[in-house]
Queue: 2 jobs
Job 1
Amino acid sequence: MTKTRVAILGATGYTASELIHLFARHPYAEITALTTRSEDRPHVADVHPSVRGLLDLYLEPLTDDELAARADCVFCCLPHKASADRVPGLLDRGMKVIDLSADYRLDDAQTFTEWYGETHPDPDRLGKTPYGLPELFRDKIVGANLVANPGCYPTSSILPLTPLLLNGYIKPEDIIIDSKSGTSGAGKSLKPGNMYCTVNENFQAYGVGTHRHRPEIEQVIARKTGTLPSVIFTPHLVAMDRGIFTTTYSLPAKAADEKELIACLRDFYKNEQFVRVMDALPCVKAVAHTNFCDMTVRVVRNRVMTLSCIDNLVKGASGAALQNFNILYGYPENTALI
Amino acid sequence: MTKTRVAILGATGYTASELIHLFARHPYAEITALTTRSEDRPHVADVHPSVRGLLDLYLEPLTDDELAARADCVFCCLPHKASADRVPGLLDRGMKVIDLSADYRLDDAQTFTEWYGETHPDPDRLGKTPYGLPELFRDKIVGANLVANPGCYPTSSILPLTPLLLNGYIKPEDIIIDSKSGTSGAGKSLKPGNMYCTVNENFQAYGVGTHRHRPEIEQVIARKTGTLPSVIFTPHLVAMDRGIFTTTYSLPAKAADEKELIACLRDFYKNEQFVRVMDALPCVKAVAHTNFCDMTVRVVRNRVMTLSCIDNLVKGASGAALQNFNILYGYPENTALI
Amino acid sequence: MTKTRVAILGATGYTASELIHLFARHPYAEITALTTRSEDRPHVADVHPSVRGLLDLYLEPLTDDELAARADCVFCCLPHKASADRVPGLLDRGMKVIDLSADYRLDDAQTFTEWYGETHPDPDRLGKTPYGLPELFRDKIVGANLVANPGCYPTSSILPLTPLLLNGYIKPEDIIIDSKSGTSGAGKSLKPGNMYCTVNENFQAYGVGTHRHRPEIEQVIARKTGTLPSVIFTPHLVAMDRGIFTTTYSLPAKAADEKELIACLRDFYKNEQFVRVMDALPCVKAVAHTNFCDMTVRVVRNRVMTLSCIDNLVKGASGAALQNFNILYGYPENTALI
Amino acid sequence: MTKTRVAILGATGYTASELIHLFARHPYAEITALTTRSEDRPHVADVHPSVRGLLDLYLEPLTDDELAARADCVFCCLPHKASADRVPGLLDRGMKVIDLSADYRLDDAQTFTEWYGETHPDPDRLGKTPYGLPELFRDKIVGANLVANPGCYPTSSILPLTPLLLNGYIKPEDIIIDSKSGTSGAGKSLKPGNMYCTVNENFQAYGVGTHRHRPEIEQVIARKTGTLPSVIFTPHLVAMDRGIFTTTYSLPAKAADEKELIACLRDFYKNEQFVRVMDALPCVKAVAHTNFCDMTVRVVRNRVMTLSCIDNLVKGASGAALQNFNILYGYPENTALI
């Protein structure tokens, strides 16, 4: 059987490294091109020492035509805006694209400009591109040519909240999302905030009230539930490599105890292999290096709380991207994801 | 000048180790007795290797009379209930006591029984013992014989919330406190949850809706503001040795922007050396190994947020205890605390 | 195709958890039994939360006959001595056994008693059981019924040293091995030395001159090279979950520069997928969660140094065990190991 | 009493932060000037958030004359070479200087050029400047105007080795020093090797055979013992903020057991408060945030091993610098160091 040929656009970061490890286990696909802006053409094993022996490619500055000659599907790991600059050219040449940037996640160009401070280069595809959370939008992903791969915080928040909203258990107003993320979520850029001695033995909030994942969470929930929720989103930086833990506090819309609320989630995700609804409290370590999202519910005083975790690099990025890839190409959805 | 003689009751834990380091710098006091239930009488340097050379004492099972012969003031680091079993005997013999357990923090024996599952051995002192947060209750601490040293989570929560409540900026209802603590807060007991490979690269909530610091926070705020608030308190365990970061979400009681709210805190604590009100977001690392509490305020949508940090072993335990000691004995309040 | 049925004897520890994750990817085998001494019969997802959804079995106290009815091959994860108490019964019933304890690694019962303080229950198999390092003893493993899975420190030491000894580059006398291991290597037992606040932000040596992996290193090298080396072995405990870094210092037996020595290793391992000989210095993170052993050589003054790393739970334990399993059953050796 | 006025030249790094914390406790000295090359003149609390409230100064680009007007003593925390460019001017203006760079530690300009790749700007002071390890060179430090503050690795190595060499217990040839350092030792520079996700859950060697602390160790030991030793020095980077653990392997020069060797160290340091010779194995955590050097000896096969630890930012840098300061000004040597 011919393997599906995969390219990674922007292959120097953590999500690319994770994709290479995942595809090394994929029986039906192979990575055939890696790109970088740099003219140095480094070998992938020098950029990502852990993949030495798994892939023998150089990172190259490839044009759209060169990519089209070498790949069927492109995983776009470029920064926001840079991604939407490239995606139309890739689609025009018949490639499928899974975009890991934020460029195609929002509903409209105006919101994009408001939160990302840039004019969107490809506004017509906004609102029409499926959001790559298969557990909620699988029917939209099947047959698509472009998928907007979800943000890490949104995945950890939308998955537990949506079933409770859809079933009328919680109100869409005054949802508080207090999230905590490992440091790989901040990317590989050389800034003081990412240094070992800054992060280690430290804990802090950042982007309070201003983080770009807030509109993503709100618009995606609205797309699924029909009602725009009002969210307060507070991310915190944790001294660990990977993992997100999200604690949410919502107002109940009708009386229900923990048992009923957990049953609601369990029923909603009963056919989803990658969502594990639990009675016990979840923890990051049980999902690290996996594509699982673990979650539970608690009722405390006048609030419904959800507690959920994912690995930000797997279910929050590269694992979800591979799950979307498997859907696009008709492979078993969990291929190379267990 | 004769030094004040200090005993530590229950000297095997982290708070005792921290007290010994702090007293090694104290010019007006010295540690003269350390106790343990064990008959092994270990040398303090074998129990706490870091204090070798700073203190040459053995841990011994001492009676109240033996303690009275050797110490003027006792820092009681026993578990809850065990502390209130000993404290009356110490006070009867004329010693002053700073109690680091939870036994004298609550207002009444009924609440104690409800949350700690024990009958309080010394109920008459509840509601009359000053709560050892000098920034709020200094006048009650001066001249006391017994001080209830605050809990770590309560200190990190009460300090930022109280001035906003007292000045009518936030409502006492529906206060959400999302706290994150380093692992020394869990104490030194040998349980799976405290193992390195359980905690490291992990993040989790615990005691959701059931943690004993919730009634402490509510009652102490009520004592200062006159109104019992309603609090949802969620603690989380973080892979770091020390430090607490507390994020709170309150409903505004009147219109005010961040500038005004920060000014409120700054004014309230203008004479307090150990509270640092900041415009920037605080972080745990800036307060680790210090007696400072750093804090700021943010307004996000319909909520007033406070963000604050302390070192749970210093301002959240032993540092606060030493601050209380300095007040009890009339020493400059920051002695050995800088 | 019928899958090979696998049992894990002593399934509560870290190596069992790792085996379950690895076998979840194995197309030709499945885990069919898990044992524990406890009568509680816990579900595997309650013992190892990360495997929830990957395996639906209970841990049970099974007899040899019960195991024989349910499994073709047993991975024995019992403590030393306990393992050799069970292994003969398993072999007698026709099962193959991969023993992760130290019980069958040494050459003779006397050395076992000297270092482990116990009389060996099954001395006749000592010296005849293949040592499960396929890169050195693959021909002995093929067709075996029992394999002694290597210790983690020995794997990290024997792999770089053996080719240099075999090719006469270094002397077998005065080999210094300075190793550093992540904390999972210490196992899951509840002891003060394994507590988060003991290990975190700490670094220490242990078992200096007395660690049981020294005779294993010496005897296994002797088995391969014909000469018993003299080793000084110093293990250190590092604040990380997994990984071993081993630095060795040997006396040169003939003149050779780094290039020649690296070429020696590269040639020796040229057909071995799981050994990556590099010019650059290796690091633990590049091998964590993989079955690779990375290594290089340096010449400093009068010494030949090797620097090597493995993941102690994968190539140092469960990954090597699976590699041996694949050999025993004729599956591609890297099945489920990439 | 007038306080001694202290300036820190190059006040943006970790050693400056540590000095500020230490001087906040010093009753006889105060920091009166902080310098930086930047024209931004940032407030020290914005550069080092942890010192907010302890010092109210701005970092300024000050000339030698400006420094002379404001300070009696300068702690020079500049990079190597930059330091020796400034030191003569400071001395000429009558200030005392404690130099934390490597510029005045070596014996001669040729060795400096060989290892640091620069022509030394002030070669005449090489070989004449006291090496600021008071436990070995106190008599040279008293009365000096310039002190070369020791390197962190050298302090951890020289202190345990020197007494054994002086007493003829070990040979100066073939000394192997295998050191492991926390990440603050790498400084605050923005490089990939210092990123959280690079260092965390990782372990690696660096500078194998080429680290500049090797000639420092050799020359300083020669200065004290009269014989130039031959050292192999291997540094490793550890995922912890601070601390150095050094394991050395030496050839015995005469027969002696551990007891005798430990007694040798104990006797040599019997009047030194900051050296703690122990029977037990030392660990980094017991010396972190202190000025102690903990050490012991083991005899394994044909080798004498020393195991020692310090906090690289305290005894390995700023604490030692303050100890030297106290000697220069006649204050009790442990002032502000307990």
Job 2
Amino acid sequence: MEFYLKFVITHSPVQLVSYDRAELKQTLLMSGIYHLPSSPEGRAPVRRKTHPPWLRFHLGISRWELYNRKDPNMAGLTHYLATQRILSAVQKTGGTQLKLLMSFPNYGQALLKPMKQARDAETDGNLFYFSDFERHNAEIAAFHLDRLLGFNRVPPVVGRLINVTSEVREITTDHKLSRTFFTSPAGNVCFYGQCEYYCSLEHPVCGQPHALEVSLAAMLPDLTLAPRRSWRSPWRRSYSRTKLAQWEKDPAYCDTVKQTPPYNHGTRLVDLIDMAILDFLMSNMDRHHYETFEKFGNETFLLHLDNGRAFGRHSRDEPTILTPLKQCCRIRRSTLLRLRLLSLPAGRLSDVMRESLVQDPLAGAAPLLSEPHLSALDRRLAAILQAVQTCQHQHREIIYNDLEGYDGDFNQQPD
Amino acid sequence: MEFYLKFVITHSPVQLVSYDRAELKQTLLMSGIYHLPSSPEGRAPVRRKTHPPWLRFHLGISRWELYNRKDPNMAGLTHYLATQRILSAVQKTGGTQLKLLMSFPNYGQALLKPMKQARDAETDGNLFYFSDFERHNAEIAAFHLDRLLGFNRVPPVVGRLINVTSEVREITTDHKLSRTFFTSPAGNVCFYGQCEYYCSLEHPVCGQPHALEVSLAAMLPDLTLAPRRSWRSPWRRSYSRTKLAQWEKDPAYCDTVKQTPPYNHGTRLVDLIDMAILDFLMSNMDRHHYETFEKFGNETFLLHLDNGRAFGRHSRDEPTILTPLKQCCRIRRSTLLRLRLLSLPAGRLSDVMRESLVQDPLAGAAPLLSEPHLSALDRRLAAILQAVQTCQHQHREIIYNDLEGYDGDFNQQPD
């Protein structure tokens, strides 16, 4: 991204990033496609139809959510990522498994995760969550699920069938990546890259012979331009084969958390519980950290990034993921209402997810989530509502009322 | 092994190792089980019924074969390995994948290879042969197949269901091994050891929760006592993703080999072709080296060791494994006769193998080779006979007559 970005230093709900109009205009004009109508210099730039979708996405990020579900640009953005010509592909550093940074015309970028195993393969029960493969379809499904839950905290992700030869090997300038390409005994073009886990000849990523399913996640504004803060989750797992985390030993653990900033104020605690609900539904055990945009301070939404280890097992649930809800017995009113809606026969979560996922370009090959995974969503949703009910029998003030103007006292009439 | 072994330096077909009677007697008496009848000192020891089976196996090794198929001790040896108490378990160094050295009462030892994947899992077509997992059932099936072909060049192997907790973890003195034990999320006892490939938390060997299928191969006499010579196979693969080996580029490659010692004399060339036939039948591409017992010089059989990468794929054959036969157009008469017998409906290879494998203790759980693997044997056997026929149309003197007293000229009346 070669734009000059300046930050609007304010705490009111404004744009995360705003672009210097002169620079933006010049750069976009140089790209030969966009025309910016003249407007007074210095005024906060607005999103225009002529802006590329990724730019409109960045300009639309607010203090409260990553995107507005009704924003027509979202469909434009996923269409852009799914269809635009791939200009470059390099390895993305950070994290433990192979991922690529892809570039598109007009400076758009996306994070690519490749398909590494059969789409319906269940995670080996003898592997720890941190050893599990990342799944491209989990990244896609997590975006859809998060949106259906009304969170809008996962960057848009779309599936795409790429050609590993013409769209990676032949255009990459990343020598460390390109020298890991080879033709497999089965005649497929494969590569493995360089990374901490599973980047070896024994774990190749392979086309058939060139075609490879991948997920493409829209990139957030560059870290240098919109810095983020990383927070260690209070309910982080111990990441040890033998040691227990504090929350596993202390049933009253949440009492401590509730008194600790930033969880002692505002929505941070119920935001964390939202995240636990999302993770429990998709059985993601790997949420050791979460991020926020620094600019928005502590009063802002949590980014639900990096969902590749979700949807690994449908045959069992992982109750410990729900621990924040169970130990704190707090939940946003809007979240609870949404969950209840999604448990009704008319709008069952599995049905809504199936319908949503069918819009992804990869759904043509095979459903992005198999039926057992969709059923697991309904089963887990029931378990969450059950946990809320158990809380209601034991505590007062379970509901964090984030819906003003709603009639009736929710705490008194939970059902 | 604490015995003192002395070598009978001779080139006549005698025992590979002979034991000093006094030492042997003392050691075995100390073990409290065996009694050796007195016999004149200095005379070459004979195998006695009172000797433990592994000792009788060692004493029975000849210049021409590793064991005699009709020797009743073979059943005793496999029974011994399959049932005797396991006294110790340590990692065996050398090679690239995890294997253990197991010890039994009376100084018997065996090489353990664990089950690492579902028994009927086919090798991923995108993996190179040298990245393939070793399979415990391949070790067992290779022993049976080699014996059925009349080679008797694979050390006896038997399957066993062991308890990884009581028979490995609790008795091992190998700290490098024991500290890799852990209980998996599924509640199974697992370990991964230390080795070059696949020894990591991402590739655990797991009991269910303690029971693990393994193969146990009888150990050969210790290298210090019966040294072996390792020979690089002339048809060795290049072990590179890109380079071709010389034999892949030169159709007349065998002409060179035939003029090169030791292939220019005796049975070495047809021994190599026997090995290629065995490897083609079980689709083992990993025969880069082979070994012989140094004591027997160049006029001796080839050991068919290390068959864990065989039987990886049943759905296709690997024609290049047969290259030595195709390029040299030579075959032992005894081998050809045996192959023809095994191609007849009355004694079909797949049927004989199924019958042989059912005797293994692990056959109770599931057949050691699935039906597709057994069918592949028949298909590959037909391909070998076809290759011989093609040779017979193009060359004279295809048959190496190792059967004296056989009537009729085989070369003239091939069918």
